[in-house]
Write a structure and sequence with these properties.
393 residues, alpha/beta, 5-stranded parallel β-sheet, 16 helices, 15 strands, globular
Length: 393
Amino acid sequence: MLESITLTELNNLDKSGVQLIDIRGMESAEYGLIPGAVNIPKEQILRDMMLTESCDMTIRGIHLDRTKKQVLYCTRGVDSPEAAAAMRERGYDAYYLEGGYHNWLVNSVVQEEQSIDLKERQEQIEQSIRKKFHKQLFTPFAKAINTYELLQPGDHVAVCISGGKDSMLMAKLFQELKRHDKFPFELTFLVMDPGYSEVNRKLIEANARLLGIPIRVFGSEIFDSVYSIEKSPCYLCARMRRGYLYSNAKELGCNKIALGHHYDDVIETILMGMLYGGQVQTMMPKLHSTNFPGMELIRPMYLIREENVKWWRDYNKLHFLQCACRFTEISKNQNENDPHYSKRQEIKQLIAEMKKVNPFVEGNIFKSVENVNLNTVVGYKKDGVRHFFTEGY
């Protein structure tokens, strides 16, 4: 009979007798593991349990110890029962964690908030930006703002927060920039609730309190609108969210919205456009809104590497949801089923493989859209009009 275990029961077990296994995909696992866990994706567990005859198993270099209880967890407890059942059939004392990583995450954030001095914790996090991560985070943040002229005196910026690591860090970097008081500008920390579950919203609000970010939340019904869309709901959701953010920001007197896209997002977008879209384009550091006159989108984390965002997050023992949308609650593979999502994962892996051969490949991809020679381009588009090299040949 398949057995489950609650988070309370797990916390009461002798950890020396437990092997905690995270069965999410590698990308999801990079957002954080329960302390003491190892990551073995579900697909590998099911495949190896089926193909390997030996009872003494090692998967991805991790030995499955039959003398211990194996406690498996996924994002929300949807995938883990199947993997635990497969292990039990092979004689392992396997259980699945009810509620999965999400349940642990919400509980850990709430418990921390109740047991610490918030002001002291906020100061520690801010000091890490000023000292330990100044070169990796604040310096490229300020450089992007200066290089691409993202801020002007008198600007009122809506800092758009999704609840993930990137947007939360962006908010802290804006607060640090404001503290320097080089020129006058205003900030509004804007969170759009497109239909989050109650626990997801509470988690975002708890992290905002933990970080000292005075968020302003407004609601929409985007999840209801895209819920039945089968093809690329994430893409449609993102476009609709941006429209709502522009509209609400403008009503609040803002003239700019700031999004948390970073350097790695930029180079992945360049390659995705070439390999899957047959076009050369990039994610611009700033854009004028076509539907909201006078509004502008800026990306001040344009020069910040994702590995440094993760380093800051892990150093400060912060925990954020990978995605708080409704689809992650019902989909067994989260939004990895979305074509846009899976293609981005392929590009991430491709860049990682190329970097093994050429350590400069990331910088070269980034610079490629700055060094376009129109004399060697067969065709291009400008303001929606297509041009061909024969026009001026």
